[in-house]
Amino acid sequence: MRLVSALRAIVGDDGILVRDEELFVYEADGLTLHRGRPVAVVLPRDKTEVQRIVRSCREHEVPFVPRGAGTGLSGGATAIEGGVIIELQRMNRIVRVDENDRFAIVQPGVVNADLSKAVAHLDLFYAPDPSSQQACTIGGNVAENSGGPHTLKYGTTTNHILGLELVTPDGECLQLGSEAGGTNGYDLVGTVVGSEGTLGIVTEVTVRLTPVPETVATMLGIFDGVVEACRAVGAVIGAGLVPAAMEIVDQRTINAVEDSRYAAGLPRDAGAILIVEADGSSASVARQVERIREFAEASGARDFQVARDEAERVRFWRARKGAFGAMGRLAPDLYVHDAVVPRKKLPEILAAVCEIGDRHGLKLSNVFHAGDGNLHPNISFDRRDAEEMERVIAAGEEILRICVEAGGVITGEHGVGTEKRDYMRLLFSEADLDAMMKLRLAFDPERVCNPGKIFPTTRFCAESNPKARGYDEVPIS
Amino acid sequence: MTTSPENGTPLGVLAAAYESTLDCVHCGLCLTACPTYRETGRETSSPRGRIYLMRGVAEGRIPLGETIVEEAALCLGCRACETACPAGVPYGALLEETRAAVADADLRTGIAARIERSALADLVPHPRRLHWAVNLLAGAQRLGLDRLVRPLMPQRLREMHALLPQIPPSSERGRLPAFTPAEGPTRGRVAVFEGCIMPEMFGRVNAATVRVLAASGFDVVVPQGQGCCGALQAHSGDATTARALASRNVAAFDPADVDAIVVNSAGCGAAMREADHVLPGEADDFARKVRDVSEVLAEAGLPRDLGRVEGTVCYDDPCHLIHAQGVSLPPRALLEAIPGLTLVAHDDPGGCCGAAGIYNLTQPEMSARILARKMDALSAVAPDFIASGNPGCLMQLSTGVAVHGLQAEVVHPVELIDRAIAARSAN
Amino acid sequence: MSSWVAEMESILPGGVETHAPVALEGAKLEATLRPESREALAASLRVSREHGKGLLIVGGSTELSFANAPCTACVRLDTVGIRTEREIDLEEGVALLPAGETVRSVQAELAGSSFELPFDAAGPEATIGGVVASARQGFRYGPPRDHVLGMLVALPSGELVRFGGRVVKNVTGYDLNKLFTGSFGSLGVIVSVWVRLQPVPERVAFVAAPADGHEPAALLQGARGASVRAAVVASSILHFEVAGDEAAVEHDVARLRTLGGEVSSDDAFGGLEEARHGGPFRVRVTGRPTRWAEVSQILAAGGGVVIAEPARGIVRGTFALDDQDERSIADAWNCAREASRCAGGPFAIEAASVSARYGREVYGAVGATAPLQRAIKSRYDPAGILNPGRFVGNA
User: Fold this and answer.
1) Which residue of A68, A327, B161, C203 could cross-link A140, Cys pair, CB 3.0 to 4.6 Å?
2) CATH number of B307-426
C-alpha cells in the first residue's frame, strides 16, 4: 500500500502500526459502543512529522483522526470511517513553564495530572481536572473542552487555553493566540477548543496555570433524598457562594460503591450524599464552610462533616471517584452518560432518569456535578446481549430527550463524537447545524479531519434501529 | 474455533481468562501506570490494549498471533496497572494465562526463549544445580573465562551475558541456620523463606534478615525442604512447574507453628501470598501467613537503641510489593526510624525499574529504557543509598547505578537496619 | 429609489427610512433599517444580500471607532428595537437578553438581587449585542467570552440560528459563541444572548495605593490577590477593587495595605472607564503580565497617556494627536507595535478616526491566520454585506 510506505518513510518502522491485530486494539476509545478500524496508526514525534503525515493522507485521499490517550467517552478518537489514526502520545514534552507569567507550553500528549505535578513546586496547577486526569492528555482535553468536578469555580478547558499551534487539514502550521492570550481577529483559540479534533491537529498548547489555593476544605453532607441534597446546592449557589466543587452521589451509587472494594463506610440508607469543596484563604474557607453547613442543615442534611485530614478527604471523595469502577464491576460494559439541565430541574430529572432505567430493566445509577447541573447516569450492561444493548440505547435516548425538554443539552463535557451525533437534532435545527458546518468547511472543506463526528448521519433522529447508528460490529478485514 | 464474537460463547484459547477480561471497562486509567506504554505510546503495549487483545483472542476475533505473543513478552508483569485500575481487573493472572497459552502453542521461538525456559524449569528450582551453576559462573568470572568465550556466543546470549551481575564470594552464599533464637524477650516466632536466587546472590540480605528479626525479638526458623517459589515460572507461562514448586513450599512450611512466614523478596512474597490461587483449597493457611519482612518489622517496631547510619536514602518500591501486595508504607517507616538516615523522595518510586524477574535478560532494550527513566529520577536526588526489597530490583538498580554513574549504594532495607543494629555498641 | 427599498418595506413596514447620504465611519449611508422582530431582521438580511447592500450594524454606537472602518456599507441597520424573548432566571443565575437592550438597564433591573450582569459597559447607550460583538472588556468583569452561554444570531442567508444555551456547561457542537463574540458583526447579527450572571459579592472594598516607589513585580503581586476583581494603574495611582466574602476581602485588603494602600469609600472605576474611553487615538496591548511596566513605559515614551491592568497584562495608551497628521499617527502605531512585541501578545487600535485607520490593519499583524479568517468570513457572509471592511483584512 503506497500510503503505508509513505507514512513509514515519515515516522520510521517504530512509529507505525499496520498489523490487523494492532489495528484491532485501536478500534475504540473510552466508548466501546462504537467501533471503527483504522488502516494504520502513526506515532509522530514532532509537528513537522504531523504536517507530513497530514499532507500524505491528503495526497492519498485518506481521512485522519487525532488521538491522545483514548480515554474520551463519546468516540471522538475512533476512526469510525477508517483512515489513519495520528496517535500523539509521543509528543509528550512540557516545553516551557513560565512561573511569573503563569503559563506553560506543552505538547498535546502531556498527561493532564503530570502537568499539575510538574508545576506543583511552583505552587501552581492546571485547573481543569477531568476524572480521567491521571491518563488523559492536554491535547484530548483541548479537543473535548473537558470539564471535571472543579469547573464549578475554575471553568472548563476553554477558560485555561491561551494559545494553540494547529496543523490545519491542509498541513499548514498556524499559531493561534499567544502566551498572553488575546486575539487579533476572530477568537480562533476559543473556536478550536472543543471542536473534537475536526478542525485540525493541535501540536502545541499554551495553558494558563493557576495558583494553588492556600487552603482547601472538603465537606460531606448526608441527606435522606436527592431532593434535599439538590436544595442545599441551590441554596449555596443562590447565596452567591462559589465552592470549588459540588458533587452529588445517589443512593444506587452509594450501594454499588459500598458493595465494592471502594467501600467508604457510607450509610446505605442515605438518599444521597453531597461532597463540597471550598478553597481560598484560611479565614475565607472557614467562613465558607460555616455558611455551607448552615445551608446544608437548613435543607435537611442529617449529617454534615468536614474532613479533618487527607485520609478523610480521600474517603469522602471515594464514593464519587469509585463510582465508575464500582458500577463497572456489575457488568462487562459501562456506559457513562453525560447531559446538562438547569440546576433547579435536577430533582425531577433525576427521578425521571431512574424511572427510565427501571422501566428498561437496566442497572442505572447517578453521580453528578450538581453545581453545574451536569448529570452522569451510569448504566452497566453487557454489549454481547443485543437485546439489552437496544434497551441501553433506547433509555439513553429517552434521557437525552427529557434533558432537552427541561431546557438542557445533550453533553456537558464528554463531547458529541459518534456517540451523540444522531441526537444533535434534538437540540438543533438544520440551520443551526448548517451554521456549525460552515465553520467546519472554513477549516476543512473536504471533511478529512476526524470525519463522522458531531454532525448527524441520519436524516431523522427518531430512527431507533441501532444498526443505522453504526453500533454494529465493524467486520475484520 | 471462531464463534460470533458478541454472543457470549467464547471457545478459543484464553477462554479461562475471558471472564476477567470483561471486568475491563476500557477507561484507560491504567495507561500512564504502564512502563511499556510510557516508553512506546502504543495502545497495543498498554494494559488496556493487552486486555483487549486477550478478549479478542478469546472471542475468536483475532488469532493468537504475533502481536499478542510479542506483547505478552514485552509486558513487565509489574502490575502497576492493577493499582491504577478502578474496576479491579486481575491483570497479573490474565498475563500468566496468556503466557501459558503462548507457551502451550509453542509460539515463542529464539534462543532467549529457549534459555529462559530451560533455566526456569531445570535450573532455578533445584538448589544444588543452581548452586553448582553459580559456582561455575563465579569461577569463570574470577578467571575471566567468560569474557574469553564471549565472542563465541550468539548475539542474544552475548547481550544477556553482559547483564549478568558479579557473583558474590562463596562466604556470602551460604544457607541459613535452621533456628536462631530471639534476643531478649520473645515477641513471636517466624519462619523465614530463603528463596532460590537470594542465597546465591544475596546471602548477605538473608543473613541480615535473620539477624534483624532476632534482634527485634523473634525466634526465627528456616524450614528444610523449602525452595524456589515458582513465581518466575508462572510469569513465563509454565504453570505446571509453578504449581509443583508452590506445592513443595506448602509442604515445607507449617503455618500453625509460626506467627508469620517472612519473605524478603517481593516477587516471591507476591507469589506465595497468592499460592491459594495456584493450589485452590490447599494453601489457604499458608497464603494467609505470608508477610513481607518490612510489614513484620514495622508492626513489631525496631529495637529502641539503634545506632546511626549516616546519609540519605531513596526507597524504590518493588512492583511486586507495592502493586501486587499493596505494601508501601512499612519499608519507608522503617527507614525513617533509623537514626542519622534521611529518607528522601524521588519522582515515580512506584514505577518499574525494568528488572521484572528475568525481563532484563529477555527484553534488554526495553528494560534499559525503563531503567534509564528510573535512574534519571534517582540522579535528580543523588542519594547515598537506594533501598529496595527485591533481588531482581537490587541487581537492576546496581547495574543502573554503574551504567549511569551514580554514587549510591544499592541495598535491601533490612541491610540498613542491620547496620543500625550493628552500630548499637558505638552509641 | 430602487426595488430593494420596496422589498425591504414589505418586510419592515415603517422600519425603512431613506435619507440623503450620511457619512459615518467612512461609509455613506443612504438608508436606515429598524427591524422590530427577529424574523424581520433575518428577512432584511436576506434581501440585503440579494441586492448586495452592505450594512453597518449599530446598537448603542459606542464602539464604532474600534476595528476597521466599514467603508463600503450603504445602509445602517439599527438593532435596538428588535423584540425577542427575554428571561432573567435568578434561581439559576442566568439571563437571556435581547441584543438591543442596554447594559445599564439590565444592571438597574438586577440591582438589589443577588446577581449582577458581568459586562462593563462603555456608556449608558452600550447594548448587550454591542458588548458581545465587540468583546468589550472593562476593568471589572474580564472578557465577555467567559460569560456568554448562548446566542441567537441572524445570518445573511436569512436564517436564525442558535448555539449554546441556558446551561452553564455545554459542549454540544462547536462553540460558536466564541467565534461570534468579538467578531464585530462580520458573521451575523446577534439577536439575543444567554449570559451567566455573577453573584453579587458579600462585600466590595476600594483600595488606592501610590504606584511609584514599588517594584512592578510587587504591584503585580498585589493585583493578583485572589479576591482582587479589578486593579488599574493610572496617573501613578494603583486602584483596586476587592470583592468576595468578608474574610477574603479582609485578607486581600490587609495585603494591599503593605503596598501603602488605603481603603477608600468611592468607586474610582467609573471615572477610569471614562478616561479609558478617550481618544482620538487609543491602542490596546495585551501581553504577559510581568511586562506591564515596560509596556507602559514604551507607550508613555511615545506620548501616550497610559492605563494599565497588570494582572490581565492589558495596557492602553491614548495619544492626543492630530488625526490628520499622517506622521504622528504612524509614530503612534509603531509605538503600539513595539509595545506589543515587548508584551509578547497582540495589539489593536481601539479608537481612531476613519482617516487614521484608513489603510492600516487595526489588529496589527494578523499574520498567517489571515487566510483562515477570510475563509470563515466568506463561509458565513459570502456576499460580504455585514459590516463590509470592518473586520480583519478589511473583510
Assistant:
1) A68
2) 3.40.50
CATH code, residues A94-211 = 3.30.465.10
Specify whether C326 is located in the same domain as C343: yes
Alpha helices in A145-250 (DSSP H): 151-154, 188-192, 226-238
Q: Which site among B44, B48, B83 would you substitute to test the A interface, given the most A Cβ atoms closer than 10 Å to its Cβ?
A: B44
Kind and range of the H or E run holding C87: strand C87-89
Task: Tell me the CA end-to-end span of chain C in Å, nearest whole number.
Answer: 28
Which of C19, C27, C24 shows the shortest CA–CA distance to C1?
C19
Look at residue A207 and give its three-state secondary structure. strand
Say how far apart CA A402 and CA B208 lie, in whole Å. Answer: 68
Q: Which of A363, A35, A359 is nearest to B6 (CA)?
A: A35
**Residues composing chain A:** 477
CATH fold of A2-87 = 3.30.43
- Say which residue the cell 506591564 belongs to: C292
Straight-line distance from the first to the last Cα atom of chain B, in angstroms, rounded to the nearest whole number = 72
How many CB atoms lie under 10 A from the CB of residue A463? 12
E strands present in A155-262: 161-167, 173-177, 201-208, 210-211, 215-223, 245-250
- What pLDDT score does A129 carry? 94
Q: Which CATH number fits domain B15-104: 3.50.50.100, 1.10.1060.10, 3.40.640.10, 3.40.50.300?
A: 1.10.1060.10
Give contacts of C 214-233 with A, CB under 8 A.
Answer: 217, 224, 226-227
Instruction: Give CA–CA dist B296/C112, Å, rounded.
Output: 66
CB B383 within 8 A of CB B311: yes
Kindly provide the ipTM of the predicted complex, given to two decimals. 0.95
CB contact C287 to A (< 8 Å): yes
d(CA B311, CA B335): 11
**A283–C250 CB contact, under 8 Å:** yes
DSSP 3-state assignment of B108?
Answer: coil
**The domain at B172-299 falls in which architecture?**
3-Layer(aba) Sandwich (3.40)
Q: Where are the domains of chain A?
A: 2-87, 94-211, 213-414
Name every residue whose Cβ is closer than 8 Å to that of residue C214 and which is 6 or more positions away in sequence.
Answer: C259, C260
Instruction: Name the burial class of residue C378, with classes exposed (0-12), middle (13-18) and buried (19+) by CB atoms within 10 angstroms of its CB.
Output: middle
Q: Is C1 exposed, middle or buried (0-12, 13-18, 19+ CB in 10 A)?
A: exposed
User: Residue C171 falls within a domain, yes or no?
Assistant: yes
Residue A240 pLDDT: 86
Could you count the other beta carbons within 10 Å of the beta carbon of residue C6? 10
> Can you give the pLDDT of all 395 residues of chain C as single tens digits?
578 999 999 999 989 999 999 988 888 999 999 999 999 999 999 999 999 999 999 888 888 777 777 888 899 999 999 999 999 999 899 999 999 999 999 999 999 999 999 998 778 889 999 999 999 888 999 999 999 999 999 999 999 999 999 999 999 999 999 999 999 999 999 999 999 999 999 999 999 999 888 899 999 999 999 999 999 999 999 999 999 999 999 999 999 999 888 998 778 887 887 777 667 899 999 999 999 999 999 999 999 999 999 999 999 999 998 878 889 999 999 999 999 999 999 998 888 888 888 777 777 777 889 999 999 999 999 999 999 988 876 66
Give the full edge-to-edge strand order of the sheet including A201-208: A94-98, A103-106, A201-208, A161-167, A173-177
Judged by 3 or more CB pairs under 8 A, whether C touches A is: yes
Distance of alpha carbon C191 from alpha carbon A314, whole angstroms: 47
Query: Looking at the complex, does the CB of residue B349 fall below 8 Å from at least one CB of chain A?
Result: no
Q: Among A279-293, A420-434, B168-182, whose mean pLDDT is lowest? A: B168-182
CATH number for the region A213-414 comes to 3.40.462.10
**A415 chain-C contacts, CB cut-off 8 A:** 171
